[in-house]
Amino acid sequence: MHKFQIAVFPGDGIGYEVIEPCVALLQTLTAGIKEFQLEFQTYEAGAALYRRTGTALPPSAMQSAKEADAILLGAMGLPDVRYPDGTEVQPHLDMREQFQLYAGIRPIRILPGAPTPLADPRAKQVDCLLVRESTEGLFFSRSMTRREGDAVFDTMKISRSVSERLFNVAFSMARSRSKARNGRPARVTCVDKANVIPSLAYFRTIFFDVAKRYPDIASDCAYVDATALRLVRSPWEFDVLVTENMFGDILSDLGAALIGGMGMAPSADIGNRHAIFQPCHGTGPDIAGRGLANPTATILSAAMMLDWLGDKHDMTSCKTAAKTLTHAVETAFAPGDLVSTENGGTAGTEAIVARVRKALTKIRQDQVVA
Q1: Is the CB of residue 310 less than 8 Å from the CB of residue 322?
Q2: How far apart are the first and last CA of the chain?
Q3: Which of 117, 209, 214, 368 keeps 20 to 30 A from 336, CA to CA?
Q4: How far apart are CA 78 and CA 13, in angstroms?
Q5: Is residue 253 domain-shared with residue 309, that is, in the same domain?
Q6: Which parts of the chain fold into alpha helices (H)?
Q7: If we measure between CA atoms, which residue out of 6, 119, 126, 17 comes closest to residue 72?
């Protein structure tokens, strides 16, 4: 049996409220599986720890995360806890940079039965993937800010080596999506502002260079402002979007709004060796401790973790478990009566977890019978 070490960082605010039931669901899901086992170890990090001790991410916790097979994270940061330069305490960004987690994967998929602000019936077809570069771009300015008098200059970095591996991930995922759809053509769209910013014109040049290696995958480019418009007007037109760090941060939140809110939006930050899996939402200090947090994004992020472990270690059982957990979430929302509080419904954390657990139990029972 393969034992996977999972480093768990609940973080701040509602992070604890969504992580704890997610871990419990994973334990239920994997109980009885002979091929692998998940072993969880929880570590404290985040804004609350920084406020109390002056350290947001202890070196020992960082080392444990480095040694783990995967990292499962709740949410980090609190609006009123900031570093001396005025930025929020968000040590997960340090993890991204330390572990070179260059590919931020943000699925934008509307679950059957889940709420969406889109009235067009074609909204049922929304199933695209945003691939966001997570170590460079404008976020690079966190360590390259320059001050001159009353002006502050931030540096955006675009390098060929990082961009190439990002685009390789995007095209590889497009190819996998095409296979999963029985060969239906896939397309990768590079989102940039190449008409104004030279570094993003370079980003586009690298994209077309990499696209030549994937003749079976269609490719095109779009400006970020036009993409934002199209994501609202006709998101079903997109397949795989790949973009710079800041643009990806903004567009992923737009995508979350389309699929029912931040509580429905999972994510993964992946590198060559390490990966972090976490919901796209923040710490929700205004609802923390009230049982209102939507755990769906965290659960779906855990499914992405299982799928990634399956790919990385060539373990079909991991990928099967990922599909089972995703199917349980889909089953929970399919009737259309499970509406989270963030969408004006009454379903809080406990109600959503209970519905997913019920679906998961039924699916596992059916698998045993089969």
Answers
A1: yes
A2: 23
A3: 368
A4: 8
A5: no
A6: 15-30, 47-53, 59-67, 91-98, 160-180, 198-211, 224-233, 245-258, 296-313, 316-333, 349-369
A7: 6
Spatial distance between the Cα atoms of 127 and 229, rounded to a whole number of angstroms: 17
Distance of CA 319 to the CA centre of its chain: 17
In the predicted model, what is the mean pLDDT of residues 146-170? 92
Q: Is the pLDDT reported for residue 183 higher than 80?
A: no
Q: Sign of the C-alpha dihedral, residues 106, 110, 116, 121?
A: positive
Examine the pLDDT at 132 and tell me if it is beyond 90: yes
pTM: 0.93
Could you tell me if 2 and 64 lie in one domain? yes
Last residue of a domain, one of 258, 275, 299: 258
Residue 338, both tokens: 């499970």
224: exposed, middle or buried (Cβ count in 10 Å: 0-12, 13-18, 19+): buried
Q: What is the pLDDT of residues 197-241, one digit of tens each?
A: 999 999 999 999 999 999 999 999 999 999 999 999 999 999 999
Alpha-carbon span 136 to 278, nearest angstrom: 20
Q: Are 47 and 9 in contact (CB under 8 A)?
A: no
Structure token pair of residue 2? 């393969």
Cα distance between residue 75 and residue 89, in whole Å: 11
* Whole-number Å distance between alpha carbons of 360 and 366: 10
Cβ neighbors of 233 (< 8 A, separation 6 or more) are: none
Q: In terms of DSSP bridges, do strands 266-270 and 275-279 run parallel, antiparallel, or are they unpaired? A: antiparallel
Regarding whether 74 and 42 lie in a shared domain, the answer is yes
Task: Show the tokens assigned to 5.
Answer: 């070490």
Cα four-point dihedral sign 242, 243, 245, 251: negative
In tens, the pLDDT along 58-105 reads 999 999 999 999 999 999 999 999 988 888 888 888 899 899 999 999
Q: State the greatest distance between any 2 C-alpha atoms of the chain, in Å, as a whole number.
A: 72
Looking at residue 32, which CATH number applies to its domain?
3.40.718.10
**Domain contains 90:** yes
Tokens of 89: 């305490």
The answer on 202 and 271 residing in a single domain is no
Q: Does a structural domain hold residue 347?
A: yes
Assess contact for 349 and 291: CB atoms under 8 A.
yes
* Host domain of residue 195: 117-258
